[in-house]
């Protein structure tokens, strides 16, 4: 499995200038390649091949007075900028033809020097090197000081130098890390994600939502008001922009650290983890958009998925249209929708349920039903006899749209 390991780096002022040149050259090569392909498409000419594009915007461009300064940076950085352009085109074409699933991908756009995030990539061909004194040697940049928070599990295949909006520099190494199966665990868990409680587990555990963005709202409001009073284009406005970016970076870093610890604990303690396949993009357009984005569900589910694959656990997503909040986990009876203020309810079979715990229990049952057993066959729950008044009615007829009651737990 290929993983990324990020470390903070501290370049000197001279090294910052060298990185700024590399960022700018990579951006120019990307934009030149995009401009050539757009012009060829508008003129009805054949698609410019990768080799021809590299020859025109790098090899031949270095010989011209307008682009002679491209020789000041590593050639691998320029080649990787074109590789990013080719990847963007492939994703765009695959999305249009239907080979790429998910949201539609827009065509490549020109990169701006005012983008908050700048990045360049060095592959093994660039001969970057990790020195014995702990520094990272990059061609035509120098030896960067790295804060090693942990050791790399293997030799890195590439490194990406990133400058974020807060002015911080990071080195992101791509490493082929071996799988590390954990000892088998006896428990399995279903997770119901929400807003009041970030996650409710099928064993009854409720994890409160930390709401990092909400907690930092007062400080962010003050910094953004201070930014709005600065004169556009002034040095004070530039300083205020960095202060706002640092405040947002602190929120994002805190959220990521908390989710890493929570996801690791869940994967370590359970053999199988099942969650709902939430449409976070759609929920992010609702009136609860700020709370949805503050929760960071997509990032958390991605952590669970890759950690389960690495540590030998089972991870599954159930159908997003499953009525987990309205189904009795004891008898399987599906009731109609309930107001969000009803947090507990009693089924006609006599079972009393907590709304969120019941939903998590149903997520676990649905995940087990959709998971293959040891022989490779699908495991299905035993049929539940329908009530007389429900006979002849399709079980999904009462719910034509997905119930988001468990998700919007207020």
How would you explain this protein's 3D organization?
38% of the residues lie in helices and 17% in strands. With 410 residues, it is of the alpha+beta class. A seven-stranded antiparallel beta sheet has the order 2-6-7-1-5-4-3. Strands 10-9-8-11-12 form a five-stranded mixed beta sheet. A two-stranded antiparallel ribbon has the order 13-14. The chain is elongated and about 85 Å long. Residues 374-410 have low confidence and may be disordered.
Distance between the termini: 38 Å
**Beta-strand content bin:** 15-25%
Task: Please give the radius of gyration in angstroms.
Answer: 26 Å
Overall form: elongated
- Report the average pLDDT across residues: 88
Question: Percent range for helical residues?
Answer: 25-40%
Show unreliable segments.
374-410
Structural class: alpha+beta
User: What's the main sheet like?
Assistant: 7 strands, antiparallel
Q: From N to C, what is the helix and strand string?
A: EHHHEEEEEEEEEHHHEHHHEEEH
Number of helical runs?
10
Strands of the widest sheet, in order across it, are: 2-6-7-1-5-4-3
Number of strands: 14
List the helices and strands and how they pair.
Blueprint: E1 2-10, H1 13-42, H2 50-59, H3 75-97, E2 118-123, E3 129-130, E4 135-138, E5 142-147, E6 158-163, E7 169-176, E8 188-193, E9 197-201, E10 206-208, H4 212-215, H5 217-228, H6 235-269, E11 272-276, H7 280-283, H8 289-295, H9 297-310, E12 314-318, E13 344-346, E14 352-354, H10 355-370
Parallel strand pairs: 8-11, 11-12
Antiparallel strand pairs: 1-5, 1-7, 2-6, 3-4, 4-5, 6-7, 8-9, 9-10, 13-14
Helix pairs in contact: 1-2, 1-3, 2-3, 5-6, 6-9
